[in-house]
Structures
1.
Amino acid sequence: MLASDFSIHPQKLWNLLATPLAPQIVDVRRRDVYESVSGFIPGSVWREPTAYADWIGTLDRMRPVVVTCKLGKELSQVIVSELRGQGYDAAMLAGGQGAWADAGLPLINRSSTDRLMPRRPSLWVTRRHPKIDRIACPWLIRRFIDPAARFVFVDPPYVADAAANFDAIPFDIDGVEISHRNDRCSFGTLLDIFGLANEPSLARLALIVRGADTARHDLAPEASGLHAISLGLSTLARDDDHGLLDMGFTIYDSLFAWLRFAADEKHNWPSKVA
């Protein structure tokens, strides 16, 4: 929770992403400003600032809210004050998008988002019975690109037709943009397309996913474990692909948290007892 703080610093907000405490991030830059920028904060959704009365009620009261504008001035402050007055756990991003960019934190590529997801929430389609890459990709999309994204799973021959008929984005299948490229998995392709490939923890996670998904366990020592757990979860889930996503997301949340906050921690049975 954001507790009583009226503002939150960019690094703290970044540290909350993909954790159980991750807030809803609402971008309230003026439309002309928002449409002119090249990137936006991962996981954020844009809302018209002067029409806040129309959309405040759509926010989840059970989750904190972070509001961000261009520089953290009147737009975000007015809306945060209104949210707090209505009982939301809300804070503004200190310094706004400018402070986020100055801190060198990741931004989602705007042109790719507009091209692939002209409407949000977005709909994505892939093959049934996901195991590794087809769970890692939805995790990345939900946590960083479109928090309200929906996913459907069909038999492999029908993915292309499903994408065309339902205006969905196909992924992790031959012949589409978001799939394996050279030695990279679809997860790595997503990182490239949306401008996240240089974030160190996501780049390391991509190597683990690639190792597990392509039987290249030599690429990362964690790949063998991810492979085993993923196949075990798939066996338990049987035909419940959406239930498998829920279970799998916990695995990727945990891996990402380990990479960011605990990768240097050692664990061993103590050789001596004090």
2.
Amino acid sequence: MKKALLSRLSLSFIALAALSGAAAAAPAGTYKIDPAHSVAYFEVGHAGGISRFMGRFNDIAGELVVDTPEKSKIKVDVKVDSVDTRTEALDKHLKSPDFFNAVQFPMLSFASTAIALNGSGEGTVAGNLTLHGVTKPVTFKLKEIGSGNGPRGDARVGYTASATIKRSDFGIAYGIPKAATDDVDLRINIEAIKQ
């Protein structure tokens, strides 16, 4: 009985170890962001913070270099004109000079300066965030979601990054705090294809 139990436990441990190995880090190389499977979200407190409101940007592009932490890089470009709250009038207001001023500042971008990931694929990515014509250092929490082959056999990797910024730091102070809070949660979900 004990031998059978130990044997089952050993087999379970081997299976678990095999699964852990399957979740290994993404293969090194340059990856291009797949815009069809990547998105940038923002969430803000509405009406002085009585509720949470979320919007997204539909046009995202960029590139990743997956290597050792010292050589890895992330570059993301988001067209602010692609803002989508499911409400046309609000989208128009967000594109106006009150908020993003999409005509004068068409791009939100992030370029990494340092990446740290542990063995579980969790860590941080520090870099420069440019929004509304202002560039500030921001550190995102970073997590590798997975890696493997896509439906057509191409090598892919997925990450999610999240951070909280103050929009007033980027010159977007309209309606603080009555219309919307100063703190904005940002989240970027990335799926990228190896080149």
3.
Amino acid sequence: MLDLEEITARFRATADYASTRKLNHRWLGALPGQVAALAREWELELGADLETDFTARVSSVVLSCTGPLGAASLKLAADSYALAEEVAMLRQFAPSGRVPGVLATARGAALLEAVVPGTPVEPLPEQPTPAAYARFLDDLHAVGDPDAAPRRIADWLEVLYGWTERGGQDCAASRRISAELLADPADRVLLHGDLHLGNVLASDTRGLIARSPIACAGERCFDAADYVLEGWDRTVMVRRRDELAHEAGLDVDRLDAWCRALAPLGASRSNIPERISELFAFARGEY
């Protein structure tokens, strides 16, 4: 069952608590009643809390549950508009078979198909092969209407660079590279937009599954870059770049440029000095 005290303690320990205190204090206080009402309405038997995400961008809680439609995940978010956008984009991507199905929605809540085992692939010792990841990207990018995207890739990049620069990172070189790419656009599809490997789940029956899109309209290499940059060092990154470009039919030079533009953003999220060093070296083209 929902342990509000434990979830609140986790939230208060995050760096973003002060900036979102008022909104999230109200939201956390209302959570038990909201969960109980949804459990009654949707006939759910609640399980453990699977995930909490308390950041300046979004605060959410995901609970395991079972109901008339089988195993599911109940996602609740402080920002109901952000969750409604996520649900709309999951429905756009649904024909690909590469996202969880949306089973039901309410304001600030969504009941999603359970992904089994649903383990994020980021920490797995055996990572997806470039061929498997190319199939995943091909399926994801073959559906959805880029004109339905809530933002363009340029808008999302401005947010990402802004967050990184407020953290003290210099993004001038990244901005130059991405500006050159955007000035000479390639293909245009509906992008997931936040496809780091923590948002890619392993499914026993459907292979790789994407969750939590922050969708935008742009070129495929943007989503592909995260897989390359998850390589531990430059040797692995270069190998992933070349093999993924080949398997997915991507322009390797454009993929390389997007990787160099986004590498400092990945470095800003890491706390491992060796990995930070490798990402910055890749961003400088030292490989």
4.
Amino acid sequence: MPTEATSESFDSRLKSVADAIETTLEGLLAPAALPGEVVRPARLLDAMRYSTLGGGKRLRPFLVVETARLFGVEGEGPLRAGAALEMIHCYSLVHDDLPAMDDDDLRRGRPTAHKAYDEATAILSGDALLTYAFDVMAGEATHADAGVRAALVLGLARASGLGGMVGGQALDLEAERATAPHEADFVMRMQAMKTGALLLFGVEAGAILGQASPAERAALKRYGVALGAAFQVADDILDTESDAATLGKAAGKDADRNKATLVAALGLDAAKGRRDALAEDAVAALDAFPAARSALLAEAARFTAQRRS
């Protein structure tokens, strides 16, 4: 288990990166139109900012920033790449909360976007965040090498699209209509797409920015896959054991909606055991790197298992 000093260091670094990402997002979501834009509609921009700023632990961009830092790459590039990934994550939450999807009224302790504005504005704000993410990732300020930028854009598209997050959401909705019990293999595959793909990409984006070797990228992929899986199992457990005040969103909805979760497929105790084993698998994958350099990534893996919200 981590020492107290290491935990404090991780908490401090997570907050520091979250603050830097917040500042980056504030600048990107400013009212002034960019070259090629005509005007940024005020209500639409306000809804985008509402859904993106001032909330969340920013774990996905933390993974981008900290993995890039593993290779000595810091500054504007990783922050922009992390902000682009966070835009994708936030757009997905806006759309997931819609009445046609999960029909949630609460997100991060506040009314969801379609409640705070209206359904049409919520949909458009999600669309705008999605497309703007690729704009940011492709910009020269993210990396001087066009090949690196192209690899980032391709990786983000694959992680967030048909065979990644969006495809996983489709499988999740299909599972709600199933009458047979959900098999663990199906649940794990769906979760690897819906949740795991963006977390894994956060790690891979940092490796792309750091121009990691094939062996280093393979080790980081093992880390990212295990971390992403642990994160979602922890989420399933929190939905079972926590409450809305703690989570900042509705709790206990998974069972009510016949959601495909590992708690349902394996039982609560087995799900907890898998969560903890996955976190340690992620930590073990970092043996390819000096412990002093990868310590915060190891703490990030443990954080996914230990978090309470």
